[in-house]
Amino acid sequence: MTFKQLNLLTDWPMKGPFDAIFCRNVMIYFDNPTKARLVSRFQELLAPGGWLYIGHSETLLDTGRSLRLKGPTTYQKEG
Ligand SMILES: C[S@@+](CC[C@H](N)C(=O)[O-])C[C@H]1O[C@@H](n2cnc3c(N)ncnc32)[C@H](O)[C@@H]1O
Which residues have C-beta within 8 Å of that of residue 41, sequence separation ≥ 6? Predict the structure, then answer.
């Protein structure tokens, strides 16, 4: 496991694929177009079957092509 600082709104150094992405209580700061772009980037980085966890006060308005709601604030990329 590696820990690094990351600005979600700029280029990312990591390539993935990731089995899980935790992005909790961060998207609340962003407007809807920014949120949609971020979710789309998360989808690209997730492995098939990978999980996206967001905060309990958050919802994804548009989950894109491949993310499915699997539980409260828990989404899975189709495999
Ligand atoms: C409400 S805190 C949530 C912290 C933690 N994820 C949690 O659930 O306890 C929001 C966090 O979003 C971070 N944040 C805001 N804008 C960001 C950005 N553009 N890139 C990365 N992190 C950002 C802030 O630094 C802050 O740590």
Answer: 12
